[in-house]
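hiii, so i know i said id send this last week but things got crazy w the move. better late than never?? heres the sequnce for the chain we talked about at the cafe, plus the structure i predicted for it. fair warning i was half asleep when i ran it
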Amino acid sequence: MSVTIFQRRVDGAKRNPPVRIAVDSGGNSTAFIRPTISLPGGSLFSTVLLLLFFALAGSAGAQPNLAEGFSALPKNSKVAIIPTDIELFSISGGGVLEPKADWTEAASRYFKAALIEKKKSLGATTIEMSEKDADDVADVNSLHAAIARSISLHHFGPGFLHLPTKAGKLDWSLGETVRVIKEKTGADYALFSWIRDSYASGERVATMVVLALFGIGVPGGSQVGYASLVDLNTGRILWFNRLLRASGDLREADKAVETLDTLLNNFPRSQ
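okay and structure toks below
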């Protein structure tokens, strides 16, 4: 038997191609360990739920990522760029997510630079918030994160988790809380983003290898992200996109650009 490990390294090195480890078992079968999504505060129970979620999500019909009646930003729109809520983690051998401040600092710097460059192609006038103003709207950013998780689960998730009252529509709002952003920036819209990125440590990879020999798959690193375009007059979320994958690396500048491009895929830029 041979085991193929798809791993995300935490030692700062570039990602290696799949590692194939030969095991003398007297057979010709191949076992595969495929990374799955792990979230902060994760546990065996949450991992099982996520595995079930993705197994069922594959059969769910495609859902719109635009609110009803909205197709693109109007010309000459002003969009406030809200600082990205971003954090990176290392996954220990036992599956515990350990925050890595240095990785998060680097990722925040790379992602911000990528966003500054990307804003030129958004088809709108963009406004960057000052650090002070960003701190003042931290609660709004946290509210967006909570609602984004709900959209990911109840709008894009498996059908049995869809909310009947939404009737399959992207119908979510941050409410009046966003008005403070309009007052501070004079913008008509705001672009929110949230990302969590995790990487399997050497101990975690070793655990994956050992358990694979017994036919047990355990989760490795993952990248989870959400982005929303919000109407600052109504609080309504007009466009939403999510990123759920076991690839990408925000610790590298060029990979941060790729992540941003993927997250903002099909952004409704002004025509």
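btw The two ends are 55 Å apart (CA to CA). thought thatd interest u
miss u guys!!
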